[in-house]
UniProtKB/TrEMBL annotation:
The keyword Cytoplasm applies. Belongs to the beta sliding clamp family. GO terms for biological process: DNA strand elongation involved in DNA replication. Forms a ring-shaped head-to-tail homodimer around DNA. This is Beta sliding clamp. Pfam families: DNA_pol3_beta, DNA_pol3_beta_2, DNA_pol3_beta_3. It is found in: Cytoplasm. It comes from Methylobacterium oryzihabitans. The keyword Cytoplasm applies. GO terms for molecular function: 3'-5' exonuclease activity; DNA binding; DNA-directed DNA polymerase activity. Confers DNA tethering and processivity to DNA polymerases and other proteins. Acts as a clamp, forming a ring around DNA (a reaction catalyzed by the clamp-loading complex) which diffuses in an ATP-independent manner freely and bidirectionally along dsDNA. Initially characterized for its ability to contact the catalytic subunit of DNA polymerase III (Pol III), a complex, multichain enzyme responsible for most of the replicative synthesis in bacteria; Pol III exhibits 3'-5' exonuclease proofreading activity. One of its GO terms (cellular component) is DNA polymerase III complex.
């Protein structure tokens, strides 16, 4: 194999694929990236047996061939080469090494044979649709923070994508919850998504998709089976991931429908006030109390070890006075996802879940469980 490629293209592609490679691996081949050159260009592939990322980039191919080299090492080498450099990759059959040359630099890396490299075959993917990269990014950005990190409830360790009939049309929904808060975002269902199975995309794959969406081109093709999903970006990157084999809970039952007390506040002012008063909360408690009365909202924190803090805000509230406590971190996470200038809270009582949105009927909806204060 003898290939010459631009440093910028190689670095960008290695950046896309090397992230799925775990730094500590008991199986040596999984520490490597597969490089394969043929008439189409230079293909790079990496996997951790749950996720596989592949990309093909233009290259000057003198001899075709394939080999695998340590992913993080080659990424660091290419990253440190000067801008605008040409990089030559060459394997010699006798030594089992890959030689990387650029300018006066020369590196020889130990290689493992391509035949040892596992292939995460996608198999049949009967359901497929296309959506804008920006739409996929929004679905992920606004729900990812609520993914559970509790390994025992593995079925909550990802985002649940599914289609549902709502408000007179078919919607594509993304839902995530950790039992304390729930995020639900929807968009008009893309053509071809009707009848797709509900799928739980795992946390690590979600994080990779989020990064790839940034420079993955204009559109994304999504193909689904009951066990795997493939995201093909218009820039030429493909990610295949296994799905979480579990049943996502019936989240509809958690979303309250009878919350009749409405509080509207300036979103940014509210977030800054929560941030200020929570400065003295204990790491364990992190509870902030919201006391609502007509036309105003009072936020307070009491910490027996370090004192207390209060702050008052103007608010649109006309119901009976209500005191309720929330985790300050969760409140800040949710308000950071809202797009509008205001935040609408729909409340019932101090022990019931609260609904949070930009405004009535917004495509993103959040549910937050209260805390005892």
């Amino acid at each position: 194999m003898r290939v010459t490629v631009e440093r910028a293209a190689l670095l960008r592609s290695l950046g896309h694929v090397h992230r799925v490679v775990e730094r500590r691996n008991t199986i040596p081949i999984l520490s490597n990236v597969l490089l394969r050159s043929d008439a189409a260009g230079l293909q790079l592939k990496a996997t951790d047996l749950d996720i596989e990322v592949t990309e093909t980039i233009p290259a000057d191919i003198a001899d075709g061939g394939a080999t695998t080299v340590p992913a993080h090492v080659i990424y660091d080498i290419v990253r440190k080469l000067p801008d605008g450099a040409q990089v030559s990759l060459e394997t010699t059959g006798e030594t089992g090494q890959m030689v990387i040359r650029s300018g006066r630099s020369r590196f020889a890396l130990g290689a493992l044979p391509e035949t040892d490299f596992p292939d995460l075959a996608a198999g049949e993917l009967p359901h497929g649709f296309q959506l804008q990269a920006a739409e996929l990014k929004r679905l992920i950005d606004k729900t990812q923070f609520a993914i559970s990190t509790e390994e025992t409830r593995y079925y909550l360790n990802g985002i649940f994508f599914h289609t549902i009939e709502a408000e007179g049309s078919l919607k594509l929904r993304a839902v995530a919850t950790d039992g304390h808060r729930l995020a639900r975002v929807q968009m008009e269902a893309p053509e071809g998504s009707a009848g797709m199975p509900g799928i739980i995309v795992p946390r690590k794959a979600v994080a990779e998709i989020q990064k790839l969406v940034e420079d993955g081109g204009e559109s994304v093709t999504v193909e689904i089976s009951s066990a795997k999903v493939r995201f093909s970006f218009s820039s030429g990157v493909t990610l295949i991931s296994k799905l979480i084999d579990g049943t996502f809970p019936d989240y509809q039952r958690v979303i309250p429908s009878g919350n009749d007390k409405r509080l509207t506040v300036e979103r940014e002012q509210f977030a800054k006030a929560v941030d200020r008063v929570s400065t003295i909360s204990s790491e364990r408690g992190r509870a902030v109390k919201l006391a609502m009365a007509e036309g105003r909202l009072s936020l307070s924190v009491n910490n027996p070890d370090s004192g207390s803090a209060t702050e008052e805000l103007d608010a649109d509230y006309e119901a009976a006075p209500l005191d309720i406590g929330f985790n300050a971190r969760y409140l800040l996470d949710i308000t950071a996802q809202l797009d509008g200038d205001t935040a609408l809270f729909r409340l019932a009582d101090p022990g019931s879940p609260t609904l949070i949105q930009d405004k009535e009927g917004a495509p993103a909806l959040y549910v937050l469980m209260p805390m005892r204060v």
